[in-house]
Amino acid sequence: MSSDLRQGVNVWAASIAMAVVVAAGVGACGGGGGGGTEHAVAPRPSSTAPPEDLDMKPADFRNLSTMTKVRGFFVDNRLGHLPEALRVANSPNGGVYPVGTILQLVPQEAMVKRARGWNPTTHDWEFFFMKTSAAGTEIVTRGATETVNRFGGNCFGCHAKADAKWDMVCEHTHGCDPLPVGDDVIRAIQNADTRPR
């Protein structure tokens, strides 16, 4: 296979893989620690604090190897809720991911759990399509129901097919359409993440 064709297949497979299987992908969307609160909304002096939220910037997306792997996808939570996110990811009965959860199947796509009420249609998930390189991450498109990847696949359209108990996270048995590539291709794409660690 020519290198141009191989590169095209890898990019295509990466985009499709995340959109359908993620959870993050196998779930699209934590680096063993690294869960700071730099994105949390600071509480006001009054007795009522605003809700937590995570508004991702390009530099916030890290190499997959810095996240916690769960089966075939990666999980992080930058607001300190990684244990809760991992409980949901590992539960045979599903559950609702906590705000601040980042799920990724491949480097180029992610889903991030925003504040409650951010977008009820997507269960408060924000979807991302990105370009990644050794220099870092560039967000190409982001949003709720309108986010489309490089190949015209609508992130929400795929994730909406997940059974309700899985909080819009796709895996092989969650009700989503199967990916057109195998797990071996997905692993190769994951292992090829060149972003800084």
How would you describe this protein?
The chain is α+β, with helices and mostly antiparallel strands and 197 residues long. It has one domain (3-33, 49-191). 21% of the residues lie in helices and 17% in strands. The protein contains 4 helices and 6 strands, in the order αββαββββαα. It has helices at 3-21, 82-90, 155-159, 183-191; strands at residues 68-70, 73-77, 101-104, 109-113, 125-133, 136-143. A 6-stranded antiparallel β-sheet has the order 1-2-3-4-5-6. Helix 1 (3-21) crosses helix 4. The protein is globular and about 50 Å long. The model is unreliable at 1-40 (pLDDT under 50).
Round the mean pLDDT to the nearest integer and report it: 83
Total number of helices: 4
Query: How many domains is the backbone divided into?
Result: 1
- In helices, the fraction of residues equals 10-25%
Q: Give the overall shape.
A: globular
Q: Which class of secondary structure composition applies to the elements?
A: alpha+beta
- Strand order of the main beta sheet, please? 1-2-3-4-5-6
Largest sheet: 6 strands, antiparallel
Run of helices and strands: HEEHEEEEHH
Summarize the topology.
Blueprint: H1 3-21, E1 68-70, E2 73-77, H2 82-90, E3 101-104, E4 109-113, E5 125-133, E6 136-143, H3 155-159, H4 183-191
Antiparallel strand pairs: 1-2, 2-3, 3-4, 4-5, 5-6
Describe the structure using short key phrases.
197 residues; six-stranded antiparallel beta sheet; disordered N terminus; alpha+beta
